[in-house]
Design brief:
single chain, 438 residues, alpha/beta, 7-stranded mixed sheet, 14 helices
Length: 438
């Protein structure tokens, strides 16, 4: 019997964590934080003493009370990729398990940065695996990484192979035929998988018809907006996901073409950039000024104003209007003197949660009150839309699908879609902490 515990991230967006057990041997896939709660508690602060219990009380970390009896049976902790909602709780929570952490090179680099940033050593053994490899974690369980495209490098689907069949955990993914950094998804291996008893499936955008656009399309959108709206005198500010290394690489190239100096401002930008450099993906620091902390960012922005904002392309944190991020401080605390026709580009989408939607609306209104030209949704998502989801189900033919990384409405939408696509596949919707056996 294969047992699943939906520890976190099932009928919520964030705190992703799944436990899978077979014959008293278990693995944990993902160990993430709730982004808004985590950022509110830790962002832009020099915190020296953060504990799992504090993060759990604030709703930032998963609640593991449902798997207390499994703790001694856990043989591996397996983050699927380096986004904080999938890996951010590892430094705080992994020490409760006597198990190695298995992850890809860039994810390992991100984990090291999170650990260093919070001054918490990782007590578990870390094993770095390539993005298409297998690892025998116990007598009855083998973990396999299958590379897929997403908005962060080295993302994998995780196949948990047992004598009774395979559980495939998608992590976050889309099927991008033209990625601008990294390889296309490993369709060949997905089609080879046999006896997939359960597919735990990214369902954030199960309501979106069609296929998620390629990252190459996002680059073209960004180029069009910039070259249509930049004058010789105006300020240019771009905010995007700090982990989106491919997008940052494109922005740097555009800055070069504009003959503007590129400056990265913000803690998370510095963290993800350093991880990318240490794993050999990029060398941004050769041509970009990277400023980590808020106090220095304030001084840097004053210098930019003195030298002339038209000489710079500013990339900063704050795409979700986080109160402690750099863009919010530029607006609310006067870190930057906005003037008419400055351009602020949100090369992202608003994460579909009420606080983010409200905060972004307020931030955009404040920017427009200065006469700033605001451009939103200059982005291609890293998450699967309906056609990507159907492609995956057609390839792996799962017996059961469990939606995750979504709220109830999208879980129900996926269930309805699957009933239309493949009547042989059942759908089970789990809530946080719920157990399921097959």
């Amino acid at each position: 019997m294969i047992e699943i515990c939906a520890v976190g991230g099932y009928l919520e967006v964030g705190r992703n964590m799944t436990a899978i057990r077979y014959e008293k041997e278990a693995v944990i896939i993902d160990m993430g934080v709730h982004l808004e709660n985590y950022i509110t508690y830790t962002e832009d602060e020099d915190i020296h003493d953060v504990h799992y219990s504090q993060l759990q009380k604030t709703g930032a970390a998963p609640d593991i009370s449902g798997i207390k009896s499994w703790i001694s049976q856990v043989k591996a902790i397996v983050p699927s990729h380096g986004h904080l909602d999938h890996i951010g709780a590892v430094p705080f929570l992994s020490k409760k398990f006597n198990a190695p952490i298995l992850l890809t090179p860039y994810s390992a680099g991100v984990l090291e940065q999170i650990s260093k940033d919070n001054k918490i050593p990782i007590p578990n053994k870390v094993r770095v695996l390539s993005d298409n490899s297998s690892y025998h974690v116990s007598k009855n369980i083998t973990i396999e990484f299958i590379n897929v495209t997403h908005s962060i490098p080295d993302t994998v689907m995780v196949a948990v192979h047992t004598p009774e069949g395979t559980v495939l955990y998608t992590g976050d993914y889309k099927f991008d035929p033209t990625p601008t950094l990294g390889k296309v998804s490993n369709y060949k291996r997905l089609k080879e998988l046999k006896n997939v008893k359960l597919l735990i499936m990214d369902s954030l955008y199960s309501h979106r018809a069609g296929k998620t656009a390629s990252e190459l399309d996002a680059h073209k959108m960004l180029e069009d907006v910039i070259f249509s709206n930049v004058s010789k005198k105006n300020g240019l500010i771009i905010t995007t996901f700090s982990s989106h290394i491919a997008r940052l690489k494109a922005i740097i190239a555009l800055g070069r073409r504009l003959r503007r100096k590129v400056v990265f401002l913000g803690r998370s930008l510095a963290k993800y950039t350093e991880a990318a450099e240490e794993t050999g993906l990029v060398r941004f620091s050769d041509e970009v000024e990277i400023i980590k902390y808020s106090s220095k960012a304030k001084r840097t922005l004053k210098r930019i104003m003195r030298e002339g904002k038209h000489k710079y392309l500013i990339v900063c944190t704050g795409h979700q209007a986080e109160k402690k991020a750099v863009l919010s401080k530029m607006v609310d605390k006067g870190f930057y003197h906005f003037t008419k026709n400055d351009a602020v580009i949100f090369s992202c989408i608003t994460i579909p949660q009420e606080p983010n939607i409200t905060n972004r609306r307020i931030l955009e209104e404040n920017l427009k009150s200065f006469g700033v030209r605001v451009f939103v949704d200059i982005h291609s998502s890293g998450h699967a839309s309906q056609e990507d989801q159907k492609m995956l189900i057609d390839m792996v033919a799962p017996k059961i699908v469990i939606p995750y990384h979504c709220e109830m409405a999208n879980a129900e939408t996926l269930k309805g879609n699957i009933l239309k696509w493949n009547k042989k596949t059942d759908v089970k919707i789990l809530a946080e902490g719920e157990l399921f056996a097959i």
